[in-house]
Amino acid sequence: QKEVEQDPGPLSVPEGAIVSLNCTYSNSAFQYFMWYRQYSRKGPELLMYTYSSGNKEDGRFTAQVDKSSKYISLFIRDSQPSDSATYLCAMSAGLTGGGNKLTFGTGTQLKVEL
Amino acid sequence: DAGVTQSPTHLIKTRGQQVTLRCSPKSGHDTVSWYQQALGQGPQFIFQYYEEEERQRGNFPDRFSGHQFPNYSSELNVNALLLGDSALYLCASSPKRGSWADTQYFGPGTRLTVL
Questions:
Q1: Digit-coded pLDDT (tens) for A32-68
Q2: For chains A and B, what is the number of CB pairs under 8 angstroms?
Q3: Which residues is A65 bridged to in the sheet?
């Protein structure tokens, strides 16, 4: 079993839709949670960074972390064709938790159609 | 503010050869991590350097080695290349200390093809 599970998709939605992306994990030591966006053949771009449980909002993006369920989500409101990319969840135990190497999900491929 | 830079962009090698990839971290960052991303997969952690020493290592063989220089830039070396080493190699940088110490910023990657 992988430490981080993520549905690879592809996920296709119409422009303007609310998108929900999710990851589950098994390592209780994870306390830092990130979402990256990766366009084809490019490096991952940091979208959201969250520590421990709770919600964080940034523009059209909302990240949620439920440590009790070992479940994290990213919501995209008013989705745009430019949001079409692969979304990677990533997590770490942190420098004080034994090391901040990132463990990634496989990524969910999102396509927002006109 | 320059982000993370990597060179070269693309590289083609044959089995058994050796390759060196280079990375310059984001301004103000002193920690460099390397990841391997196979097609259709998430990045896999190779190792992390700060203060010119390897601090953490993932499940990669000794054929993968690295170095960090006094200016914080880093190299990834892979010896005895295998077909399975074909991937996008990503460098990420982060500050060692401070509230953002656990946030990593990625470069554009080096695409390595082994024939």
A1: 999 999 998 899 999 998 888 889 999 999 999 999 9
A2: 64
A3: A54, A72
pLDDT value at position B38? 95
Positive or negative CA dihedral for A113, A18, A74, B31? positive
3-state secondary structure of A97: helix
Q: Look up residue B25 and give its DSSP letter.
A: P
Single out the residue of A7, A8, A15, A4 nearest to residue A78, CA to CA. Answer: A15
Query: Residue B98 carries which side chain, given as an amino acid letter?
Result: G
What CA–CA distance (Å, rounded) separates B64 from A101?
A: 17
CB contact under 8 Å between A102 and B108, yes or no, is no
Q: What are phi and psi of A50, to 5 degrees?
A: -135, 140
Asked if B6 contacts B91 with a C-beta cutoff of 8 angstroms, the reply is: yes
